[in-house]
User: Fold these one by one.
Assistant:
Number 1:
Amino acid sequence: MTEYDAILLAGFGGPEGQDDVIPFLRNVTRGRGIPEERLEEVAHHYRHFGGVSPINNQNRALKAALEAELSFRGIDLPVLWGNRNWDPYLADTIREAHAAGHNRLIAIATSAYSSYSSCRQYREDFAQALADTGLEGEVHIDKVRQFFDHPGFVLPFIEGVTQGLADVTTSVPGIDLATEALVLFATHSIPSEDAAKSGPAERGFGAGGAYEAQHLAVAEVVMAAATPVVESGETPTPVDIPWQLVYQSRSGPPSMPWLEPDINDVIAELPARGIRAVVIVPLGFVSDHMEVLWDLDTEAMETAAENGVHAVRVPTPGTNPAYVSGLVDLVMERVGDVPVEERPALTELGPWYDICRPGCCENVRLGFKPALAGMAP
Ligand SMILES: CC1=C(CCC(=O)O)c2cc3nc(cc4[nH]c(cc5[nH]c(cc1n2)c(C)c5CCC(=O)O)c(CCC(=O)O)c4C)C(CCC(=O)O)=C3C
Ligand SMILES: [Fe+2]
């Protein structure tokens, strides 16, 4: 048994009004070398929605759903919510936790895959929050494993793709799913250099690192489970529907390589490939972020319409009961010190590590920063 006295739900944070937009963007991009034009562009996405990101309300809803699930299971752990880049900030949440007597926290970061931005940066910000509050040695923070292949995270995507393919079949009469449809698994692009450094070096993941390998492995699981089976003839045969991993939300200077191809470039080529419909899966996102509302629902949908391609976007896990219950399972496997071989994982890559390996997801440009919940370098 590992004794924890609270769950720390660690979010990214987002603006909640027009006045928050610029200060929020400055928080996110401090020291990052993001070009001014890119910031203006992103500010415009937020301004379009009244300066309000959906992310904070998504996290409020997730917190409430986790509390309900914990109470239903009779588990006495409060859920404390803190963000990396906006109010409520991690440091404030941790200070309040300590004041209320909670000193052994198990963190859930709202991010499923391995990379600097999606794992290590959360761990660095935990370390920074303890330094800022002077609570090093007083408050202890562990973090649940990256959960890209946990059934709770994957099931909502399986439901969504199944539903999306059914929608395509009815909306585009006579479509042949095997030749005229395409499932696009979309995730956040990251610098190629960060991708290569994602995950432990000794696992030998190749150029795209653990980040790309994890997305590809989960996409395969989703396709295998969501593919319709044709019942005609002797043996039911699954329809072999083409799918592809694509990237979105590229930032940084144009001279710096980021993961490609971009979802819009791929959609623009679809008429030439004879594709008439796409199912867009926000595989890299745990809930409706600005990247989903703008980059997918606005931009990618527009590109699809311009090219005469029917497009449906699958829901994010959000507060899907399977996801909420899966997150509680992830906490409870740590509380119960459940052995690795008994932990659920739907791909060969997992279950991922509780304690990140030395050098895992380091950022070569920003240099070394202390991080919690990992092995000593
Ligand atoms: C992998 C990844 C995730 C997924 C993992 C996770 O979920 O944590 C993610 C999530 C998010 N990213 C978000 C917002 C932003 N990300 C930016 C910048 C960047 N993201 C990066 C990567 C990722 N980002 C990177 C490599 C940069 C370049 C600068 C840097 O190296 O840090 C910028 C600056 C402007 C721009 O450059 O686009 C903004 C505003 C929001 C909030 C959205 C909302 O408000 O709903 C969320 C959830
Ligand atoms: Fe981001």
Number 2:
Amino acid sequence: MNSVADVWTNVLQQLKKDLSETTITTWFDELTAVDIRENTFYLHCPNDFKKRYIESLFIKNIKAALQDLFSMEFEVKILDEAGLLEFQGGAPKKNSDRFTYEDFTFETFVVGPSNKLAYAASMAVAEHPAQNYNPLLIYGDSGLGKTHLLYAIANVIRQNDPAAKIVYIKGDDFINEFIELIRAGRGSDFRAKYREADLLLVDDVQFVAGKEQVQNEFFHTFNNLYESGKQIVLTSDRPPSEMTLLDDRLRTRFEWGLLADVTPPDFETRLAIVKNKAAALGMELPDKIASYIAENVTANVRQLEGTVNKILAYKDLLGSEADEATVTRAMQDILKKSNEYIPTPDNILDYISKYYGIEKEIICGQQRVKDAVAARQIAMYLIRGMTNLPVVEIGKVFDNRDHSTVLYSLKQVEKQMKKDPAFAETVKEIKTNINNRH
Ligand SMILES: Nc1ncnc2c1ncn2[C@@H]1O[C@H](COP(=O)(O)OP(=O)(O)OP(=O)(O)O)[C@@H](O)[C@H]1O
């Protein structure tokens, strides 16, 4: 074996021991070997769907084949188009490369009551940037389409103005980049990158809260772009009013434009998403099965998509038809993987009551005993984080407390967790135990 291509041919031969010919031709046909560097075997796959599919199901087979051939362990990395360019040093890493993904458009976004405001606002921003809604902040729980809408906006802006400088960044990457460049004395590069943007998209902006210098930098970037008439779109897992560690001056700015929420989709929207997704994958799903999925997978769209992908996999790999048994199996797999158990406030209170040895009535009541206050605040914090309950509703669970009291408690817990790692560990442990249904 003298070239990477030879290695790949041999790997494919080895794979035949575990996988059928059809599986190999269906899923591996677009893969090509790129290089072997420092115990990592690099492959390229231009088809994003197949890439993700192989990553979730077949990486272990490829690793095992390499181990058989070389008697040593390899990492396997599959590069997409942007990744390949970057790997080959042909192009600098551009965040906006991500917007070539055709799947994340307004056309592929299913609109329903749960997301119609966010959708309409995103369309308005895409067609008329920096006019009516600046910034646009889309908030809601994970997997409900926030990033999809960000990409859709970027796709339209790119179409309308191919020269537009679009900068996309995740809140936590913004922080890491900031720290790295400031440390390296290249703060001006950092500033230039963001302040020259025509469109700034920040996904999961809640991460900047609580980090003083980062917030300060973000504040100046924000003002600069805003004053130059550039559009800013942000997403977050909660509204600014609930970002307890956020600087007030940023909070007010986030609230200047439009706040649009996305909530879990209703049955009709879920059904449409399942059908669209199946059609996009070239699969015909009987109506009864599509409804069955939409009835049972309710928490988020990522899981709906995962279920449809799994059903397709079973069909391809095992020849199983999409009947209720296959679907149930696919759903169980997905829910297990994402550890999707949403406790009720009562489940959380039961566990905290047991953990602290304090009765539930006391936790929820008005007593100001030290331990009860701590247990109460943690309970509010976990109810907010682990269920979809809005703060007003959480207040009702705790003897009709006002929502501002709940917010104060959330802030206290967040602060304490930052200050005291042991306390943070305790909160984490309680959460894990609730998830494991102890
Ligand atoms: N209304 C919708 N119509 C079609 N697809 C959707 C819709 N909502 C979400 N999706 C799909 O669900 C998946 C998850 O959505 P997305 O990544 O946008 O979620 P998110 O809200 O940004 O979550 P996170 O906060 O975890 O990043 C994506 O593949 C997206 O295309």
